[in-house]
Write a structure and sequence with these properties.
Number of domains: 2
Distance between the termini: 42 Å
InterPro entries: HATPase_C_sf (IPR036890), HATPase_dom (IPR003594), His_kinase_dom (IPR005467), HisK_dim/P_dom (IPR003661), HisK_dim/P_sf (IPR036097), Sig_transdc_His_kin-like_C (IPR004358)
EC number: 2.7.13.3
Enzyme class: transferase
Shape: globular
Order of helices and strands: HHEHEEHEEHHEEH
Strand content: 15-25%
Keywords: ATP-binding, Kinase, Nucleotide-binding, Phosphoprotein, Transferase
Largest sheet: 5 strands, mixed
Protein name: histidine kinase
Helix content: 40-55%
Length: 228
């Protein structure tokens, strides 16, 4: 069923993007952007529902892999994918990776990318202007991904509930109320955790903390150069 729904959505999004890239259609660019934004919102809702259903069906045994991956290219490519969503908006999207981050870690790169993407998407939804900064650093036996924004912030009364399913900070901002739930469950499945701090009208900071495990074989020099 998911394939039957996703395929036409990808077709709509791909066609809208091709039309938006056509200089002859500059007058329709805003309309095409509206089509793209609506399609991406629908795709996000679909993915959230499918992911949440799979997680609930699997219970605590969420399927995650444990393989070597390079954190720097993973983060940079994720930020590159997200950068298109801030074009034309008064938002600065930035990243900072600590110098002591190792070239490679053990984990599930696909799931880690999913968590980071969810956190960045959440920040974009609630930030009208200012900044969104993604910081990656080590902290003892853990490595951390911190996503900080200058958005509307979260009411303290709701902060303790935001990782529960279908909880929405603001109904005006859209979403399913599942993105943070999915991210939290995935973080736990990978031996980590997701936490948040927030100040209303100032902004929020979400932190994904994961266990620090190095690959059995150290990075080769060629790989190290690619990570820098």
């Amino acid at each position: 069923m998911s394939h039957e729904i996703r395929t036409p959505l990808y077709g709509i999004l791909g066609t809208a993007q091709l039309l938006a890239d056509n200089p002859a259609l500059n007058a329709q660019r805003d309309d095409l952007r509206a089509i793209t934004d609506s399609g991406e919102s629908l795709l996000t809702i679909l993915n959230d529902i499918l992911d949440y259903s799979a997680i609930e069906a699997g219970g605590k045994n969420v399927s995650v892999s444990d393989e070597p991956f390079e954190p720097r290219p993973l983060l940079e490519s994720t930020l590159q994918l997200m950068s298109g969503r801030v074009k034309g908006r008064p938002i600065r999207l930035a990243t900072a990776i600590a110098d002591d981050m190792p070239c490679a870690l053990m984990g599930d790169p696909r799931r880690i990318r999913q968590v980071i993407t969810n956190l960045l998407s959440n920040a974009l939804r609630f930030t009208d202007e200012g900044y969104i900064i993604c910081v990656v650093r080590t902290d003892g036996e853990q490595w951390l991904v911190e996503v900080e924004d200058s958005g509307c912030g979260i009411d303290p009364a709701k902060l303790a509930e935001i990782f529960q399913p279908f909880v929405q900070v603001s109904g005006k901002r859209g979403g399913t109320g599942l993105g943070l739930t999915i991210s939290s469950r995935l973080a736990q499945a990978m031996g980590g955790e997701l936490s948040a701090t927030s100040t209303p009208e100032v902004g929020s900071c979400f932190v994904y903390a994961c266990r620090y495990v190095l690959p059995r074989h150290p990075c080769q020099k060629q790989s190290i150069r690619r990570c820098v």
